[in-house]
Amino acid sequence: MNIKSQKDFFSGVMFMIVGGGFGWGSYTSYSIGNGARMGPGYFPLLLGVLLAGLGVAVLLTSILAREEQADHEIGSFAWRPLFFILLANLSFGVCLGGLPAIGIQPLGLIIGIFALTIISSYADMHEFSFKGNLILAFILSVGSYLAFIVLLQLQIPVWPTFITG
């Protein structure tokens, strides 16, 4: 077996592991039901199987690729983007829900979106523009407010409790 595209090979393996994990977890933990009466595990199982199937297709593509489509070895792992994307999502969760166990109150949806946008932009310093990120955060905040608060009428804190009372 000659792997011609390492990127596609490892992407296929990753898809197969994640899809298999979701499929197995939903199969063993939830009732599946059938097509007419779907149980809570039906949809996750279906998505897991589809994701694992996509992984098999990508993996086979990496092995069966023509020589002119071959790529070089995979470079070093990108720790910086991983760190900032995870930190941005964690900060959004803390802003939206707070940490009551240690006395941190929710800061709300708007501040959470601004924190998410600005922190995640540090993952790629080549395209960083503070003004552009503020504009993006504003647009995302307005859109999220309209979608989740106005249209769906979800009970999400929009502003910190010390502002709204």
In short:
The protein is an all-alpha fold and 165 residues long. The chain folds into two domains: 6-69; 79-164, no CATH class. Helix content is 64%, strand content 0%.
Structure description:
The chain is mainly α. It is built from six helices and no strands. It has helices at residues 6-29, 42-64, 79-97, 109-121, 130-151, 161-164.
**Main beta sheet strand tally, sense and closure:** none
Radius of gyration: 21 Å
Assembly state here?
single chain
On the 0-100 scale, what is the average pLDDT? 87
Helix content: 55-70%
SSE sequence, one letter per element? HHHHHH
Number of helical segments with 4 or more residues: 6
Strand composition percent: under 5%
List the uncertain runs.
none
Give the strand tally.
Answer: 0
Give the number of domains: 2
Termini separation comes to 65 Å
Query: Structural class of the helix and strand makeup?
Result: mainly alpha
Supply database-style keywords.
extended, 165 residues, 6 helices, mainly alpha, 64% helix, 2 domains
SSE diagram, text form:
Elements (H helix, E strand, L loop, with lengths): L5 H24 L12 H23 L14 H19 L11 H13 L8 H22 L9 H4 L1
